[in-house]
Amino acid sequence: EAGVAQSPRYKIIEKRQSVAFWCNPISGHATLYWYQQILGQGPKLLIQFQNNGVVDDSQLPKDRFSAERLKGVDSTLKIQPAKLEDSAVYLCASSLIWEHGELFFGEGSRLTVL
Amino acid sequence: GENVEQHPSTLSVQEGDSAVIKCTYSDSASNYFPWYKQELGKGPQLIIDIRSNVGEKKDQRIAVTLNKTAKHFSLHITETQPEDSAVYFCAASKADNNDMRFGAGTRLTVKP
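Predict the joint structure of the above. Result:
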């Protein structure tokens, strides 16, 4: 079974530029999450989708971050404009069931903002 | 909201010894406590989880204990092997939302 796919793996941009990350979850997984993992910290939830609807985006900095899930499958996370403090690994995860389901993480997209 | 604290931040053990990582949580409504292992350059992977109606769960060399009264839970790894070297995260969530709060992580090094 294929895992969660993310791209790009690495991205370096200058502050105030924009960037987009793509995620393809495990087939059949209705729930999709985007996490931000700053170096030396645990993952922090940014947004959670159930099919193509947003369940929780309370921790998403909406002035610069946006996310969508197309047709309940793939998802994109965009940052515009980027700040230095956005440097982190952006992890996408999916789960088969919504409540307390095992999270399957992708390998992440590492963003460096200069 | 929920706050999860994890200790120690780094742990070094000799191969064959046991390793214990401890976490505390703040929200008494939390009822699901997974542990994830993250290897370098990879995403976290679930290794064991426990729900609040259970005090202990074991899977081969890995066990987790939960003390709901004290609001803390621990990961125990016995007979450690070099391939156990990784960063381990505890997490907590509750039934009415799926906002899983992670601890800051413990970097475990198992020396051969």
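DSSP finds no helices and eleven strands in chain B.
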